[in-house]
Amino acid sequence: MSLLGDIIDRVLFPNREIHGIPVLDGAFSPNQRLDQARRLGGEIERPDDIAPGPDGALYVSTGNRILRCTGDDFDAREVFATLDGPVGGLACLPDGRLLACVSGRGLIALSPSGEIVGKLESVGGGTIACPLSVTAAPDGAVYLTDGSRTNAPELWLTDLMQNRAPSGRLIACNSALGGAKVVADRLAWPLGVAVSADGREIWVAESWTHRLTAFAPDGGGKRIIVKNYTGYPGRLDRSASGEAWMAFLALRTQLTEFVLRERAFCEEMMRTVPSELWIGPALDGRLNPREPTQIGRIKKLGIQKPWAPPRSYGLVARLDADGEAAETWHSRVDGRVHGVTTIRRIGSRVLAVSKGRDCLVELPLGRGAQEG
């Protein structure tokens, strides 16, 4: 990018940290703790989100279905509902209804028997075509994130590489999915949403601007909690103790940041190369001989080096009540738990969804997390 182009980019997108990728140190120091996670049950094809139900079951979104999983390791699985679009974010309400984000359809409410009993398809005259995550507040309010006005949830990489002005929204409604209003607009792929422990703020993780922001429920104010992450933040989960958990889709790299700035090259790549081979983040860590080799994949004697520049990666973080990372779990370039889209605390256990490796895992907890 030319100097003039760089200046224009900074003027149009003042909150984007286009050059400064924080190093992995402090609480984010690399480790292999995520690869020590215990796999729960068999493979689930491209799981996206999980939600614990009041009946003790675990609900999992996968493709256009929602699975109901039971048993100590949630390994007894049955189809709870089949919907007419890919299913993403999930949340259970106290009355047993399950809320599901459905691509192109908005927010759907399902009865305990799996029947559709409510819908939220539009707000402010515009459709909700890219619902990403949903959460319920103790006061009965429901908060939903709409990722983009131009791309569906399954086109997340396209949305990143197009590098357009942010068009995501934070939406609020009541438990009957009525009275919908936009709390915040022009968000950059707001994949994570959670209500603060005191109910006074809504925390939103914006993947493409790599930040965590708190909004007032009435939309009257906001504050930046963390301005610049080393990865692309995903879904959030809050516990009664005040701590939070955050999943990361992948780590950022200087090469991806460079491609995002070089618009002519990036647009030619998107036009002529299959999306799974684009120079950008990926959820799957398994080697495709045609991929851009983990952007510098380093192998010696047939062994993948964990410190090679990553294309896919596994990362989750436990945040303190102020939103700062207290500890992290990593699956490095040679690891087996990549593309984590969701992490949730369920009682004394913490479960993560590895969409890149088609599985659910239970994290090994340190003392700090056990006490949280």
Structural summary, described in words:
This protein has helices at residues 3-12, 156-162, 254-261, 263-272, 293-296, 367-371; strands at 38-40, 47-52, 58-62, 65-70, 76-82, 87-92, 98-102, 106-110, 116-120, 122-123, 126-127, 131-136, 142-146, 168-173, 181-187, 190-195, 202-206, 211-215, 222-226, 231-238, 244-251, 299-300, 303-304, 314-319, 325-331, 340-346, 349-354, 359-362. The strands form 8 sheets. Strands 1-28-27-26 form a 4-stranded antiparallel sheet, with no helix packed on it. It has a 4-stranded antiparallel sheet with strand order 2-3-4-5, with no helix packed on it. Strands 6-7-8-9 form a 4-stranded antiparallel sheet, with no helix packed on it. It is mainly β. The chain has 6 helices and 28 strands. It is 12% helix and 40% strand. It has one domain (3-371): TolB, C-terminal domain (Neuraminidase). The model has no long low-confidence stretch (mean pLDDT 90).
